[in-house]
Amino acid sequence: MPFDGLFTHAMIAELRNKILGGRVTKISQPFPNEVILTVRSQRQNQPLLLSAHPNYARIQITQIPYNNPPVPTNFTMTLRKYLENAKLTNISQLDNDRVAYFSFATRNELGDELPLLLSIEIMGRYSNVLLINQNENKIIDTIKHIGPSQNRFRTLLPGATYIQPPKQDLLNPFGSDSQKYLELVQQFPNREILANQLQKNYQGIATEHALYIADRLHDTGEISDNWKNVLKQADRPTPSIVTGSKPFFTFFKYDDLKSENTESLSILLDTFYQKKATSDRVQQQGSQLFHVIKVNLQKNRKKLKKLQQTMNSTQKADTFRVKGELLTTYLYQVKRGMKEIELPNYYDNEKVVKISLSNQLSPSQNAQKYFKKYQKLKNAVDYVTNQIKITKAEINYLEEIETQLELADPQDLPDIKVELQQEGYLRAQKQNKSGKVRKNKLGQPDTFYSSENVKISVGKNNLQNDRLTLKMAQKKDIWLHAKNIHGSHVIIHDSQPSEQTLLEAAELAAYYSKARSSGNVPVDFVTVKNIRKPNGAKPGFVIYEGQQTLYVTPDEEKIKKMKKRIIS
After folding, report:
1. How far apart are CA 157 and CA 254, in angstroms?
2. 492 falls in which pLDDT band (50, 70, 90)?
3. Contact in structure between 429 and 437 (CB atoms under 8 Å)
4. I need a surface site. Which of 22, 40, 291, 341 has the fewest CB within 10 A?
């Protein structure tokens, strides 16, 4: 993805307009490699995201919601100690590299001025966030500690002297003395070759941007003017996602390719990364939960297979009973020491049946052996039938949790973890020093609004589903759920919704289900008073009657619009 030096330049220009001169009011680290500094500027709180994620490293103002972890990390505590209420005095870039510096003015414990530098290095798996004391040029702390054994040139540890990333022997395209492009255009008229040469000679140009620049340099007019006009776009960006087989984000204006524009570079990154980053965060933070579900599903599916094999073997029970009765009837023909005998089966038109015998048992004991096998299998039927029912219910429940994890946002994971602890799949939380178990506050269902401004609530996990349906909803409200598919409970907070509102709520139910990517999804709806939870049922499980069914196809763009209430 082209978060290159050019895009870094453009992003810094945008951030200067939005947050320069502001003060840090809040610091959080919702994810291991990402920090959010809330900067109060121009009477607005701007959440500045500094991400050192190996795949999605970036800087931006983000509007994607997040939850703070209950216990802050050491890096978070260090940032809070030094940067809370600090003033952002400058934002700069190291040449045209993917390194941004945020300069802060603050004071130490003695009241003396303490200039600090917060550096974000966007370098793939080597990405990092560093807090630096400018007076001493010493690292205070980093989000990733890099010791001498990992990098002999740059030690990134608290107390180490700060050394800038190795300088590239390439030209800065924004340097006033850079005329190399004139030679390159003359020497390499081919678009792809020129783009490649631009990358080899100039710093911080991704492949997609190099191809764009090559095209512009080949436009009519003076080459030097074309070069300047291209670079000016970094200060007057056109934030857009270029669609196609391999979509990418950019600040350049593409007239010849299909693209989707956004209002700002930050909104552009939120749009581009929301699904990718959210999915990755869920996988990362919920790895334990995914593992628990996977292991238990494998165990129960294996158990079900064995139970079904046992059930199939019980179908032989009548065969054992018949053999026992035949031996009893013709006991006089059976002699001790025989290993088998053939007898006419009066249950099947006198067909001859071969019966195996034990030469160590008497004729009567051989007959009793078959009766015992028959009785054992007969008794097993009821037990195995019940176990199959229990195991299928367990698999269904675990698949429901698996679906919720696949559809979850990072803030939904604590609720799912609590549920798995309550159900015995995970160990309960450890007690703190006071002997009390820390209780996580249950998350709230998501709220949406139909095109007619009717409030619609969606539970994102089983605990939320139970609370929404059984406690929060009114008896006359309308309840919806994807038919025979794992998914969320949806409540329309209206006793007589219009057909339009019903259809939109049904789309929500289909979207927040296993059938999210399907078309023509069946969705049941019924009044809440017809919902009942059986005694001892698993979280999220309810039964209902008198339902009607709608068929809808979920539309993600429509779902996003329903997040906002219409203000008349």
Report:
1. 43
2. very high
3. yes
4. 291
Closest CA to 485 of 451, 509, 455, 459: 509
Output the CA torsion sign for 365, 369, 371, 375: positive
| Structure token pair of residue 347 | 């249950």
pLDDT at 465: 94
Going by their DSSP bridges, the two strands 34-41 and 44-51 should be labelled as antiparallel
Return the exposure string of 209-222: e unless at least 16 CB atoms fall within 10 Å of the residue's CB, then b. Answer: bbbbbbbbbeeeee
Helix, strand, coil shares of the chain, percent, nearest 5, are 40, 20, 40
Enumerate the β-bridge partners of residue 478: 492, 527
Q: Compute the distance between CA of residue 6 and CA of residue 389 in angstroms, rounded to an integer.
A: 61
- Side-chain-side CA neighbours of 98 within 13 Å: the count stands at 22
Name residue, tokens 């340097």: 175
CA–CA dist 106, 356 (Å, integer)? 93
Q: E strands of 126-277, at which residues?
A: 128-133, 138-142, 240-242, 248-250, 259-261
Distance of alpha carbon 364 from alpha carbon 332, whole angstroms = 10
Tokens (6 digits) for 363 = 């004729």
Do the beta carbons of residue 473 and residue 489 sit within 8 Å?
Answer: no
pLDDT one-digit tens code per residue, 205-226: 999 999 999 999 988 888 989 9
Shortest CA distance to 120 belongs to which of 25, 11, 24, 202?
A: 11
Contacts of 81 (CB under 8 A, 6+ apart): none
pTM of this structure? 0.69
